[in-house]
Write a structure and sequence with these properties.
disordered N terminus; alpha+beta; about 20% helix; 12 strands; ten-stranded antiparallel β-barrel; 3 helices; about 300 residues; two-stranded antiparallel sheet; Lipocalin; single chain; about 55% strand
Length: about 300
Amino acid sequence: MRTERAVTHLGAATVVLGVLAWAASPAEAQLAARCSGEVATPELIATCGTAVATLEGVRDGLGTGHAGAAPLPGTSSALGRRFRATPRVSVAARAGLVRFDRANPDGWSTRRASSEWSPVFGLSAGVGLFDGFSVAPTVSGVLGLDVLADVSTVRLPSDDGFTGASVAWGYGVRLGILRESFTLPGAYVSVMRRSGASVSLVGDEGSLDADISTTSVRGVVGKELLGFGLHGGAGWDRTSADGVFGAAPGGAPAAVTEFDDESATRFVVFGGLTRTFLVTSLGLDVGRADGVTFGSLSIRLTI
């Protein structure tokens, strides 16, 4: 009997150590511990660990998926104004994919989160408010200012336990560093705030409901030559989730856990290629954050 108990406790301890080794931060380890409670079975500990891993993966995947690469695809300079009289306006549409970790709640006690792709669709717009300063004959657009807005949706498959798509709205500003010229590349920094994204998963061994918001910072440098342009950039996504999840291994009563401001900051790098036709451009962007991969095709009109 003592041997059986020792084996049971050893198995539980092994699972606990696995959850703690998996956890990306002390806050996430604490959340998994709160879910499993003071007296927990190995199955509940495993289910709670996978539930928290799914929460983390979905939070970061949706945050970066909605943000994408640059806030206005295929541009490397602030818009500025036309002839210093009227604002320049740009609108863009993108379609792409984002890959992030998730696990179907039908099997949280036995399956760990794995990486899968989801489609992303978005619309964005920018309006130039200030043309910026010209400090030399070929150096202009310094401190040019644009306002930006976007809406995007990440399609989430019901086969993975999701009950709908995630839709987010964003707004922000873009500050020009240099306007692209014959001799110099264009460069800018931007800040965007996105909210409204929600996610719901339901399965035999648990559920997850969360509201997700993201603050994104991007820095971009690019140069065009003979109608083709190359651009690259880097930045951060700080993504936060509020909500509740339940863990119910083997159909047992759910251990319900609330969470508030479960957040993480991810470093993002990306690059792309554009082809410009007068006022229209086609673009390709690919990027990577910690644990999240994304890519998109875009079309943009600037007038």
